[in-house]
Design goal:
It catalyses: S-formylglutathione + H2O = formate + glutathione + H(+). It contains 10 helices and 9 strands. By secondary structure, the protein is of the alpha/beta class. The protein binds the ligand N[C@@H](CCC(=O)N[C@@H](CSC=O)C(=O)NCC(=O)O)C(=O)O.
């Protein structure tokens, strides 16, 4: 693991690191905030999965999580959203496919399968690296994310029972199989079998019996992507009549940006701290 930067913040450390990823067959970059409590004891780990077009840096620079994470003693891990590099397949015309748009799935289709193994990367390879490199309590993990990253967080919570103790999302893509935002990438990464797609769709996973105790979702009503790509009411319908608890908060005037995310970041960190 290479240290790209380390800066003291709120008594802890905000770092950016890179490593050769076996899963993604390329060098991957990620950010980690380590709170001051880690000098005394292992700390819970909160995974933040970013949205389309993001790297590790968007939330690190605009998410405003450090003050509260330091207060609550949370390690915050912010991975990249896809494999990167000149040899990694990309799309020059579609921002919802290729680099910056990994959708947190393991691609099976050529030419993407060689590098686009984001599910394995986030759920296996990177946790092992974090466990070995930081004072992390891996028995106390939570996961959250934004938009495409909200989809990643919710599907991982549902697919890996017992792994995460808490899950929340900002403006998540709750039904990628029916969202024009995700369909193009799903076809390129996963092929055309709808049964395969449904394994990466929070609504479809719940319909198939997957369970997670409770979700927090924040959504802005002025989000330009609300009707087209997000539709949180589909998840509300999916969990109705199940034992899954959903707190869905609609916020007047908020859009899809990091101004929205940073406004509610403290709430999400407290939500996780109470559950991990
Ligand atoms: N390029 C797009 C807008 C892309 C965008 O809004 N990306 C969001 C995530 S969208 C869902 O996954 C984001 O987080 N952007 C980074 C940021 O720092 O705001 C367009 O032109 O419409």
């Amino acid at each position: 693991m290479n240290i790209l930067s380390e800066n003291t913040a709120f008594g802890g450390m905000q770092g950016v690191f890179s490593h050769d990823s076996e899963a993604c067959n390329c060098e991957m970059t990620f950010a980690v905030f380590v709170p001051p409590q880690a000098t005394e004891r292992p700390c819970p780990v909160l995974w933040y999965l970013s949205g389309l077009t993001c790297t590790h840096a968007n939330v690190m620079e605009k998410g405003e999580y450090r003050r509260m994470a330091a207060e609550l003693g949370l390690i915050i891990v912010c991975p990249d959203t896809s494999p990167r590099g000149k040899d990694v397949p990309d799309s020059l015309t579609n921002w919802q496919l290729g680099q910056g748009a990994g959708f947190y799935v393991d691609a099976t289709e050529s030419p993407y399968a060689l590098n686009y193994q984001m599910e394995t990367y986030i759920t296996k390879e990177l946790p092992a690296l974090i466990a070995g490199s930081f004072r992390a309590d891996m028995d106390r993990q939570g996961i959250f994310g934004h938009s495409m990253g909200g989809h990643g967080a919710m599907t991982f919570a549902l697919k890996y029972p017992g792994r995460y103790k808490s899950c929340s999302a900002f403006a998540p893509i709750v039904s990628p199989t029916t969202s024009p935002w995700a369909q193009g990438a799903f076809e390129k990464y996963l092929g055309t079998d709808p049964d395969v797609w449904r394994k990466h769709d929070a609504c479809a996973l719940v319909a198939a019996g997957a369970r997670f105790p409770e979700f927090l979702i924040d959504q802005g009503t002025a989000d330009g992507f609300l009707e087209e790509g997000l539709k949180p009411w589909l998840f509300e319908a999916a969990v109705k009549d199940t034992d899954i608890a959903l707190t869905l908060r609609m916020h007047e005037r908020y859009d899809h940006s990091y101004y929205f995310i940073s406004t509610f970041m403290d709430d999400h960190l407290r939500w996780h701290a109470e559950r991990v």
